[in-house]
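task queued by scheduler; priority normal; single chain, no ligands, no partner chains; default sampling; output format set to structure tokens
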Amino acid sequence: MSEARTITEAEAARDLTAFQRNILIILSKEPMYGLAIKRELEEYYGGEVNHGRLYPNLDELVELGFVEKSELDKRTNQYELTDEGEAAVFDQFEWALSKVVTDDDRAEDVRTIVDDQL
């Protein structure tokens, strides 16, 4: 029998879809309600984002602990990035930059900026 492997937050964050990462990036600016997130995504994608795509992904991000969901009123939920969600955004940012920034001095500058934000 093999033992079940526990997935770390960092590993879970790295397994997010691009769509889910885009939601986290949008929420890194400020807490938002669902339709505001939808509008930001539609602006980025240049087309309609279906509710059936957005809300299941938001719910999964809540379940994973990257986003916190609260009730603004009886019909509107607000979504806010958690500390874990913020760390996931910066982890992805740092990794992507490490692939682009090859100069050691510039790479160290980028790491310092990212570390200061965490």
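post-processing summary
- The mean pLDDT is 84.
- The two ends are 40 Å apart (CA to CA).
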